[in-house]
Write a structure and sequence with these properties.
This protein is of the alpha/beta class. Among the domains are: 4-145, Glycogen Phosphorylase B (Rossmann fold); 152-326, Rossmann fold (3-Layer(aba) Sandwich); 451-538, no CATH class. Helices cover 36% and strands 19% of the residues. The chain contains 25 helices and 32 strands. The strands form seven sheets. The chain has a seven-stranded mixed β-sheet. The protein has a six-stranded parallel β-sheet with strand order 11-10-9-12-13-14, sandwiched between helices. It has a six-stranded mixed β-sheet with strand order 15-25-17-16-26-32, with helices on one face. Helix 5 (152-160) packs parallel to helix 8 (234-240), helix 14 packs parallel to helix 25 (715-744) and helix 17 crosses helix 18. The chain is elongated and about 105 Å long. Bound molecules: flavin-adenine dinucleotide and uridine-5'-diphosphate. Uridine-5'-diphosphate (UDP) is lined by residues 453, 462, 516-517, 520-521, 524, 536-537, 539-540, 637, 639. Keywords: FAD, Flavoprotein, Isomerase. It is an enzyme of class 5 (isomerase). One of its GO terms (molecular function) is UDP-galactopyranose mutase activity.
Length: 745
């Protein structure tokens, strides 16, 4: 807060202090060495909690009115303060969650409710460690772990040797010290055990008592309780100790703690002995200078080892110092400050649902057209842009739908959450050319897609990887080789791999096939995998590594402001007219042009002359939920045949949007509806070839895209196809124009 106070006015609202007056008031406390001010509310002793909160809410309003200036950023260290500030019109709300307070002794029952309300309102959440981040991760969409920082220079004074504090002077060595609040988180039995086992060791417990009384403390001649000390005094105490202790009890209250004293002890150059607190083990457990002990006996041995270390600090301190170098308060402050600034920005730019112009024809008056394009998806829009910008052609783009972007269309729904109307579209490619081209119309937000499959009541990574195997079969495969050997034992070799069943069974055997592929594919395609071309399930690899990304392409990112915005920029050209909500087949003769680019279904263009080409469709159920997070990753697949949908998508993972609600989509495969997927099977290819032969006889039409060329293409492949098609066409046009001008001469 000292650091924040350099750029803003910082007012700290302390917990109320009872008073014997009959009116509530507040005192202003000024800290000598920085600009932070604190407010100390004084509340009549006999007032209820509710009266106290009401009075404080009123005081806060008065204070803000007096201060004037812009709206405040509200920063909460405890949800218990939420009722005091909830009503304030803030620029942003920060919840700095330092502990799982609800697990603490005597936690008030309303704490959980208040935390839920605060999490809903907060624009950004910080957690005071990694374990607590993991525990809260699914409750917020803009949550960031901040394991303890340390004021290195302050504690490093201890290494130089400071004068021994008066109350330590009479205590002989060796000294084992702890500082911190002494409450139910401290393993007092352990302290007693150590003191009893080693009467020649001195144990010093610095800190105030909380929630426990002096009568609860173990008493022995070699246990000392000097009481609480100020932050400024701590280095001197550390300097007088040989070993620093973290004798935490392993219980509910300590499950998520990330003790700041760990790096402080280390900065002071003391070896540390700790019980197995998760975040201590995780971040410091493999340092030579930190000993972790999970039984009283092991704790004694660890203290012996640490005492030995204290005599040869040069052996282990360099490693500690390398680690501490990254933990400065300055860098923590910089990251937090940036996140707060972003939160303020997000609140200011919060947007309402999109309102697209009513379906109709938007005309720029560039008729007669050189080219008319059916479809404003990737294929159509790119052709339009290239022909207009690259070749100066006058282009009309027609789409049946009242919007651009085809199946990649995204929009802000009623709640203001950016969703994909036609199911999740994740951009990934290995083609630099494709990225370069699209980057003319959009900036990007890096995003790596992850999918979990719900099987046997577990959520496991898809594509199958080592984690999937370990999770499904309760195995402990440690290496790629282990996993490869396991899969080889499962695999059922298929001599000639032709179908989507063959590919999978050949690689991973029937059980994994049935678990992850059979039901999903039957639902998705309405066909058994044995009836589908091998190319379909070949899209999903099997891995022996821990890589849990859905794609491994070199470029994985989402258009920063969404697909629709990218398309709008692509099509915003004086030579391009847009006719949305209009069917190509209903065009007036005046709208026609010598050349058509057709990106709708090819069989429809030819009036289904040889019968309809099979397509698979989907029905989407979009929902907005009154919570910030719904599931652990963007997409969860449901391979079980009994579940009617194939997957659920939560869009905020794709878009990075922060919003107090979240929108999700269920996908129900369907035989009827818009044609989304060409169905890859040999007989369908044969039928398509007949249409393709008709197409080849037509100089006046080019067929393009997923529907026009009946190919199960990803977006980047359609982009590549359109760019290549334009290049060929442009050459042809140059030759023609060249020929025409020669004739005119
Ligand atoms: P479309 O986007 O289908 O555009 C064709 C347009 O033509 C449509 O807007 C249609 O309304 C219009 N049209 C058709 N007939 C007519 C007519 N007679 N008159 C006027 N207009 C007409 N790809 C990825 O790379 N990553 C993904 O994660 C991904 N996820 C997908 C998820 C789903 C559910 C689906 C269905 C597809 C997904 N794809 C994904 C594929 C992606 O949608 C396509 O590759 C891409 O949209 C194809 O572009 P297109 O221009 O060929 O076709
Ligand atoms: N698939 C499956 N189980 C899954 C994921 C995919 O059986 O959990 C099969 C299914 O047949 C699917 C195909 O693999 O249609 C290709 O999956 P992909 O995610 O590439 O399909 P997309 O949704 O991108 O078209």
């Amino acid at each position: 807060m000292k650091r924040f106070a350099k750029g803003r006015r910082v007012i700290l609202w302390e917990e109320a202090i009872p008073t014997d007056h009959d009116k509530a008031y507040y005192e202003i406390h000024v800290f000598a060495d920085d600009k932070v001010r604190s407010i100390r509310p004084r509340i009549p002793r006999d007032w209820s909690a509710q009266q106290s909160e009401q009075a404080q809410a009123g005081m806060l309003d008065d204070l803000l009115a007096l201060q004037g200036g812009p709206k405040p950023v509200l920063w909460f260290y405890t949800p218990m303060m939420w009722p005091i500030g909830a009503h304030v019109a803030a620029d942003a709300v920060v919840y700095d969650c330092m502990d799982e307070l609800s697990h603490f002794k005597f936690a008030p029952p309303e704490l959980r409710e208040r935390e839920a309300a605060l999490l809903k309102a907060a624009d950004v959440v910080f957690t005071g460690g990694y374990s607590i981040y993991e525990a809260k991760r699914l409750q917020h969409d803009n949550i960031h772990p901040f394991p303890s920082s340390v004021d290195g220079a302050h504690f490093a004074q201890a290494r130089k040797g400071l004068p021994t504090p008066a109350d330590m002077a009479g205590i002989p060595g060796p000294r084992f010290g702890f500082y911190g609040v002494i409450d139910e988180r401290i393993d007092l039995t352990l302290i007693d055990h150590v003191a009893a086992a080693r009467p020649d060791w001195q144990i010093v417990m610095v800190g105030p008592l909380s929630k426990i009384g002096p009568e609860d403390l173990p008493r022995r001649p070699n246990i000392h309780y000097p009481g609480g000390k100020s932050y400024a005094e701590l280095p001197a105490y550390l300097s007088s100790w040989d070993v620093a202790l973290m004798p935490f009890a392993i219980n509910e209250a300590t499950r998520f703690i990330s003790p700041t004293k760990t790096p402080e002890y280390l900065a002071a150059g003391r070896p540390v002995v700790s019980t197995p607190i998760r975040d201590v083990v995780r971040h410091y457990g493999n340092l030579e200078g930190v000993k972790i002990a999970d039984t009283p006996e092991a704790f004694l041995q660890a203290c012996d080892a640490a005492l030995a270390l204290s005599k040869a600090p040069q052996a282990w301190r360099p490693e500690v110092d390398r680690m501490l170098a990254d933990l400065s308060w300055d860098s923590t402050f910089k990251r937090m400050d940036r996140l707060v600034a972003e939160a303020v920005q997000m609140r200011r730019s919060r947007r309402a649902p999109d309102r697209f112009a009513a379906p109709g024809i938007r005309r720029g008056g560039s008729r007669p057209y050189d080219v008319v394009i059916a479809g404003a998806g990737f294929a159509g829009a790119i052709m339009a842009e290239r022909l207009a910008e690259g070749s100066g052609k006058r282009v009309l783009v027609v789409d049946k739908r009242p919007h651009v972007a085809g199946n990649a269309y995204d929009l802000h729904d009623k709640a203001g959450v950016l969703i994909h109307q036609y199911g999740p579209h994740i951009f990934h490619t290995n083609s630099e050319q494709v990225v370069d081209y699209l980057s003319r119309f959009t900036a990007w937000r890096p995003y790596e897609h992850r999918v979990l499959a719900q099987v046997d009541g577990k959520l496991l990574p898809m594509p199958i990887n080592r984690t999937t195997l370990n999770g499904l079969y309760n195995l402990n495969l440690q290496s790629d080789e282990d996993a490869a050997a396991f899969l080889a034992a499962q695999a059922e070799p298929v001599e000639k791999i032709e179908t989507s069943r063959d590919v999978v069974v050949n690689a991973v055997g029937s059980h994994l096939y049935e678990t992850f592929f059979q039901g999903y594919t039957r639902k998705q395609w309405g066909l058994d995998p044995s009836e589908l071309d091998k190319s379909v399930t070949s899209r999903v690899p099997t891995r022996t590594s821990l890589d849990d990304r859905y794609f491994t392409d070199t470029f994985q990112a989402m258009p920063k402001e969404g697909f629709t915005r990218m398309f709008e920029r692509m099509l915003d050209h004086p030579n391009i007219d847009l006719a949305l909500g209009a069917d190509y087949h209903d065009l007036k003769p005046s709208d026609l042009a010598p050349l058509t680019v057709y990106t709708g279904p090819i069989d429809h263009f030819f009036d289904y002359r040889f019968g309809p080409l099979p397509y698979r469709s989907l029905q989407f159920r979009h929902e907005t939920l009154d919570q910030r997070r719904f599931q652990e990753v963007a997409v969860v697949n449901y391979p079980a045949e009994e579940v009617p949908y194939t997957r659920i998508t939560e869009y905020k993972y794709l878009t990075g949007q922060v919003h107090d609600q979240t929108s999700i989509t269920y996908e129900y495969p369907s035989a009827v509806g818009d044609p989304y997927y060409p169905i890859p099977r040999p007989e369908n290819q044969i039928l398509f070839k007949k249409y393709e032969a008709l197409a080849q006889q037509r100089d006046d039409v080019i067929f393009l895209g997923r529907l026009g060329t009946y190919r199960y293409y990803n977006m980047d492949q359609v982009v590549g196809q359109a760019l290549a098609t334009y290049r060929r066409l442009a050459e042809r046009m140059t030759v023609q124009t060249g020929a025409a001008s020669t004739a005119a001469e």
